[in-house]
Amino acid sequence: MEIDDNIKAPELLDLLFAQGSKLLVQELPSIFDGSATTKAEAQDDSKATLAPKISQEESWLSFDEEASILHNKRDRKREE
Fold first, then answer.
1. What is the pTM of this model?
2. What highest taxon heads this organism's lineage (predicted)?
3. Phi (first) and psi of residue 25, to 5 degrees
């Protein structure tokens, strides 16, 4: 599922909850009868990314910075 870069956390939570709930209800019968294992796909580890925990110092935002800098703060910190 594609996620809009401008979505806010509460909206994203609602969206993922709604989609996940639908998928769970759809797949529960195959989970219970064991047939879900035949549809399972292995994760492509080459596409997996690490999302390290944000430190306390990184959680502070300075609102005198441009919005794009604040938006990309985590990526910028990782590059330093």
1. 0.48
2. Eukaryota
3. -60, -40
